[in-house]
Amino acid sequence: TEPTNIQQILVPVKNITSQTLRIIRFAQIFAEANQAAITLFHVSDRKTTKEELKSFKAQLKSMVEYLQPKIDMTIKTTRNNDVARAIIERAQNYDMVILRSVRRRTVAGLAVSDVSESVMNDLKCSLVLFGEPYSS
Length: 136
What we know:
Elements: E1 8-12, H1 18-34, E2 37-44, H2 50-67, E3 73-79, H3 83-91, E4 96-101, H4 114-122, E5 126-131
Parallel strand pairs: 1-2, 1-4, 2-3, 4-5
Helix pairs in contact: 3-4
């Protein structure tokens, strides 16, 4: 998909951190510029209770409200032990996925998690890999 024709953006959210907030903010700015919609997608393992999932969703919702988006931003959650597969299946209906890359000190410089790598290999849409600088 051409970046100029992005209507639906999927942002997988593992946990609620300052990095997550920066990724969502980046997605929001991009979406507002392109009149696109964002879906924040959280995958938890099957042992997660409905109450835990509801609590996570409420925390994420308050983060979204804090950002005051001018575009449609929805939150979806699912329970699946195969996080990568869940993201890939959900991404079939999206034009772009924004993934967080986990930086580790390696000989090559940038390392991505196994989940990110699996998702990157199977995505059929545009991808933004959101890297964080090293913190010392």
